[in-house]
Write a structure and sequence with these properties.
66% of the residues lie in helices and 0% in strands. It is mainly α. Helix 8 runs antiparallel to helix 9.
Length: 556
């Protein structure tokens, strides 16, 4: 289990006089399921690894070493030995011309070895993910795939800065109590029945996605709220799993991720995808451009996920549709009442974030990047007297940033060696794809690969760095508009909710013990297939209307 960020550990402050349990709360007879402080992240019991997880953790290290040694020193692939430079990008082609075919082929084998070994370590979690990233970075240097400058400077990537600044802004909302007040008010106001409870969380997550760029931070923010609501409706997890509990946690996980896909600032991976696309097209792609394309798709998926969960995958029993703990909602009303009137610091925090959101949404006119806007917002938030948060109130999860830096370095290595282009070219040759192949076939292959690769990859950044360049390369190779393949692939980045190791929020919420791997897979795979079918439908309708899907290219 990867270390989860403690960015929002102060979401619900511990009440004076409350004792911190030394054992899992469910084991205590005096456990109060409506006490929000019990769901503080560092009080959640550590989930025991299953036999399969323990087995993977034991074999992951030796397997990664063997794979690396074999691919780096023993393997020999024709498509890496006899390289077709016409499929390479500018950077990879320049590297080929500078180093020569022999050295370039050796670098590609080393890159393939590092990529496969790191994937094994990330999936099996034999060692912490940030440590795997550090190993990746130094391996890229020692094998000569990247220079030290290129490998190390990923920590200064503008998306890394956006993540740091977003944690500052999110910390401001947490410290001032804005998020707590908003969530409590929304649940109390609209949470009178099971149906309105689920819709309330859907809207809360959608709103937060417009403001907070870190999905892990959003998961940590929301966890105490939906855990208490689950208890009110009779589900406390562990041996007391119910379909309401399964739905409330898994749908929050789904909403956290799909909500992020609605906004280009919803996650750093979205912004990275846009940077890659604009680099290939040479034209700008703005906040409102993404919103126009992505928001209808995300909204449709959110409502479909709600219906699929409560009606088909985990149908609610009649007794689960009403609160089971008498006075449960009154407890939440009391929590809201105890917060008192809105404070000046809360007003300042809201004003700062609304200005940030306004600047993000008007980037077409002022030209400031999302990172520059977040920079201005974070600086303002930290100014004594004017802002709403102090530096010591902000917890920046450096282990997550190091993990991201490793993924960026891996992407830089893939780009400089041209390995994805070489792999896709060899694969297409094997599949018999050519200039006469209909556009629809490429669309299905690219979107399907991007979507279902989330079952294996834990890093959205890494998937972005692999599949968006592939989509761009395929579009350029076969004469399609870059946006026609790259943008639909980018809209599928956030589908990382099927299995607990697929993302940090998935790992965090799995610890709540409200559902099993099978439960997560059942709901997640249904929604993943639904998303694929829906984006195909959108490509034939909405995307075509917007001019993204080309006409007359064999679309069915």
């Amino acid at each position: 289990m990867p270390v989860i960020t403690t960015q929002i550990l102060s979401v619900i402050p511990l009440k004076t006089g409350n004792m911190i349990p030394s054992s899992p709360p469910a084991a205590r007879q005096d456990f109060d399921p409506l006490d929000m402080s019990r769901y503080h992240l560092n009080l959640l019991p550590k989930r025991k690894l299953s036999p399969a997880e323990n087995f993977l953790a034991r074999i992951g290290g030796p397997l990664a070493i063997l794979v690396f040694l074999y691919l780096n020193f023993l393997a020999d692939f024709d498509f890496l030995r006899q390289i077709d430079i016409t499929v390479l990008g500018k950077e990879a082609r320049a590297a080929y011309e500078q180093s020569g075919p022999e050295i370039f082929s050796a670098r590609n084998l080393s890159m393939l070895a590092i990529f496969c070994a790191s994937l094994i370590l990330w999936v099996t979690e034999t060692i912490p993910n940030y440590l795997t990233s550090l190993i990746v970075i130094i391996s890229l240097v020692l094998t000569g795939v990247l220079s030290e400058v290129d490998a190390y400077h990923q920590l200064g990537h503008k998306i890394m800065w956006l993540n740091i600044l977003s944690f500052i802004l999110a910390g401001m909302l947490v410290k001032t109590g804005v998020v707590r007040r908003f969530a409590l008010w929304f649940i109390v106001r609209f949470g009178r029945s099971a149906a309105t409870v689920f819709l309330s969380f859907l809207l809360i997550n959608l709103v937060l996605s417009a403001f907070i760029s870190a999905t892990t931070a959003k998961a940590a923010l929301m966890l105490p709220f939906f855990m208490v609501v689950a208890a009110i409706y009779g589900s406390t997890g562990g041996d007391n799993k119910t379909n309401f509990g399964r739905n409330i946690v898994l749908q929050n996980l789904f909403q956290i991720n799909i909500g992020a896909s609605a906004f280009v600032t919803g996650s750093g991976a979205n912004l990275l995808a846009v940077a890659l696309i604009t680099g290939a097209t040479g034209s700008d792609f703005f906040y409102t451009d993404w919103l126009t394309v992505a928001f209808p798709l995300a909204l449709a998926l959110l409502f479909i996920g709600w219906l699929v969960g409560v009606r088909f995958v985990f149908p609610l029993q009649p007794e689960e549709r009403k609160p089971q703990i008498e006075g449960g909602m009154n407890r939440l009303r009391a929590e809201l009442h105890q917060m008192g009137p809105i404070q000046a610091a809360e007003i300042r925090a809201v004003v700062i974030f609304l200005i940030v959101l306004l600047l993000w949404s008007t980037d077409r006119w002022h030209g400031l990047s999302a990172t520059a806007v977040a920079f201005l917002g974070a600086v303002t938030a930290l100014i004594p007297g004017l802002g709403a948060v102090k530096w010591n109130d902000v917890d920046i999860p450096w282990h997550l940033l190091l993990f991201s830096a490793g993924a960026y370095a891996l992407g830089e290595g893939l780009d400089s060696t041209g390995l994805p282009a070489l792999l896709i070219d060899a694969s297409f040759d094997r599949l018999g794809l050519s200039d006469n192949t209909p556009f629809s076939v490429f669309f299905l292959l690219i979107t399907g690969a991007m979507l279902f690769s989330a079952l294996l990859f834990q890093s959205k950044t890494m998937r972005t760095l692999i599949f968006i360049p592939i989509a761009i390369g395929v579009a350029e190779k076969f004469g399609f508009p870059v946006l026609s393949l790259a943008l639909p692939a980018a809209l599928l980045i956030e589908h990382v909710y099927v299995l607990p190791f697929n993302s940090k929020p998935a790992a965090l919420l799995y610890v709540t013990d409200h559902y099993t791997w099978l439960d997560s897979f059942k709901f997640g795979i249904v929604m993943m297939v639904t998303a694929w079918l829906l984006i195909i439908l959108m490509a034939m309708t909405w995307f075509r209307y917007l001019g993204i899907t080309p006409h007359g290219l064999g679309w069915f």
